[in-house]
Automatic annotation (TrEMBL):
The species this protein was found in: Vitis vinifera (Grape)
Cited PANTHER family: MANNAN ENDO-1,4-BETA-MANNOSIDASE, PTHR31451
UniProt-listed Enzyme Commission number(s): 3.2.1.78
GO molecular function: mannan endo-1,4-beta-mannosidase activity
Family: Belongs to the glycosyl hydrolase 5 (cellulase A) family.
Lineage start: Eukaryota, Viridiplantae, Streptophyta, Embryophyta, Tracheophyta
The name this protein goes by in its record: mannan endo-1,4-beta-mannosidase
Keywords per UniProt: Glycosidase, Hydrolase
Domain Glycoside hydrolase family: 1-89
């Protein structure tokens, strides 16, 4: 049915999420080049970064270097998922 590109990626050396976004773009393009018959998603926890600066105060994962919104705008990413852990909220 589908591939998950990576499970809960983080890049704490770049809070903007741009480093991880570049990696996702590169790997998503590669995966689609060898398997265009399956859907592709990232496998995010749902944190967002610079695309929502007004939400920094309520975003517990701002410092994990990932951006849910921009990572799912990549054309090779077919659908979004979120890994929720309500027991630690």
């Amino acid at each position: 049915m589908a591939w998950e590109l990576i499970n809960e990626p983080r890049c704490q050396v770049d809070y903007s999420g741009k480093t991880l976004n570049g990696w996702i773009q590169e790997m998503a393009s590669f995966v689609k080049s060898i398997d265009s018959n399956h859907l592709l998603t990232v496998g995010m926890e749902g944190f967002y970064g610079d695309s929502m600066p007004e939400k920094k105060a309520i975003n517990p994962g701002y410092q994990v270097g990932t951006d849910f919104i921009s990572n799912h705008l990549i054309k090779e990413i077919d659908f979004s998922t979120i890994h929720a852990y309500p027991d630690i909220w």
